[in-house]
C-alpha cells in the first residue's frame, strides 16, 4: 500500500547558485575583450590569445564546481573536456587524450594496490599491529598514522602510499565505534593522511615526480646539478616539521570526540590473532607490491631503469593481481571511477593552461608585480604562486612556469637561485585547498568523511601554516644549514 504523503525534497538553491556562478565566470572571461599582454623583466611579451583566455575560463568554472560540489567531482572533470572542445580551446583528440595521461593510470594502479591490500586482509593485519603499538589514545593514533604515512613517502610515490594507507585507516576507523558516520576523528584521520603524504613526499626524489623534473629544469637554467642526498639534506627538517605541525593542527581543528578508545589494544590483538597465519594471497600481494616498489625506487639509481616510465612498472602489479587470481572482474567494477575521472580532468585542465600559454601569462603577471620588492617578499611571492597553482594544475607544471621567470628576476634582487628552487619544491608538494591538487587528497575524499568545502576550509589555515614554515626556512633554517640565500654584493 502506498503512503498517503510523500515529502518532496526541498529545492537546493545553494547548489543552483554555485552552478550558475561557475557558468557566469566562464562566460564573463571567455567573452570579454582581449586582455593586455604580460611583460617579463627582459621586456618579452606574453599575449593571451582566445584559446588561453578560454583555458582560464574553464579553470574558473571547474574550480567553482569542484569546491562547492554542485555535481559529482568526476562529472565536473568531464565538463573540462567538453568545454575545451565545444569552445574550440583545444581539439578533442588532445583535450580527451589527457584523460588517460600516464599520471592518471598511475593513480588507477595505486588504487588497485589499495584494493588488493583490503581484499587479502593485509590492511587489517597492518592496522591491528599499528594499534597494538600506538595504543588507545586517539592523539597517538593520529600521530602513528601521520608518521607511518610520511616515512613511507620517502621510499615510494605518495599516491601509492595514500592508496596503501587508506584502507588501513578504514580498518582503524571501523574500531572507533561510529560506523561510517562522519566524525571529527574521521575527518582528521583522512585529511591529515593526505596532507602529511604531501609533507613527507618532499624529502626525497622517490616521493613524487616533481622533484626530479624540477632539478632537471634547474640544471638547464642555472647549470648546477643538485644530487639526491643534497635535496634530502635541505628538505628533511622542513618535511618533518610540517608532519608534526600538522599533527598539532588536526588535534586543534579536528580534535577527536573521544580522548581514547577503551579496550582498543586488546581488541586489536584479539582480531589479529583471529586472522591466523598469512594466506597465499597475502604473501603474493606483498611480494608483487614489494617488487614494484623496489624497481620504482631503483629508477633513481639504475640508469637502465630510468628510461622505463614508473606508470608501466606499477601497472605490472595490476596485471599480476589478475594473473594470480587475487582480484577478479567484480573488483575491477569496484574501482572509484569518480576519483579517477577527477584526476583525468585535472590533467586535462593543467595541460590546457600550460599549452595555451595561460599559465605562463599568469606567472609573469604575478611575479613582475614583485620585481622591485624586498628579496624575502619576492621569494615568498614565488612560493605563494606555486602553492596556489599546484592546487589547480600539476605541481610539475606549476614549477615549470614559475621557475624560469623567477630565476630571471632573482639576480636583480640579489637572491640565490637555490632558495627559489627549494622554496618552490616545498610548497609544490603540499596543495591543501583542492582535491585535484594531489592524488592523496582525492583518495582521502573517497572515505565520505568530509566534503570538498570542508577540505577547502581547513586548507586555508593549513596553507598559512605552510607559508610560515617556508618563511622560517628561508630566514633561519636553511642559512644555518649552509644554503646560499642572497648573492654577494656585486655578484
From TrEMBL:
The membrane-topology field of this record reads: Multi-pass membrane protein
Chief localisation class:
membrane
Top-level taxon in the UniProt lineage: Bacteria
Task: Give a yes or no for keyword Transmembrane helix in this entry.
Answer: yes
What CDD domains has UniProt attached to this entry?
A: SLC13_permease
Q: Which residues cross the membrane?
A: 16-35, 55-83, 104-123, 143-176, 188-213, 233-254, 283-305, 339-357, 363-385, 392-413, 419-443, 455-481
Q: Which UniProt keywords apply?
A: Membrane, Transmembrane, Transmembrane helix
Location of the protein in the cell:
Membrane
Does the keyword section mention Lipid metabolism? no
Give the record's family classification. Belongs to the SLC13A/DASS transporter (TC 2.A.47) family. DIT1 subfamily.
Q: What is this protein called?
A: Transporter
Which species is this UniProt entry from? Answer: Pseudodesulfovibrio sediminis
Lineage from the top down? Bacteria, Pseudomonadati, Thermodesulfobacteriota, Desulfovibrionia, Desulfovibrionales
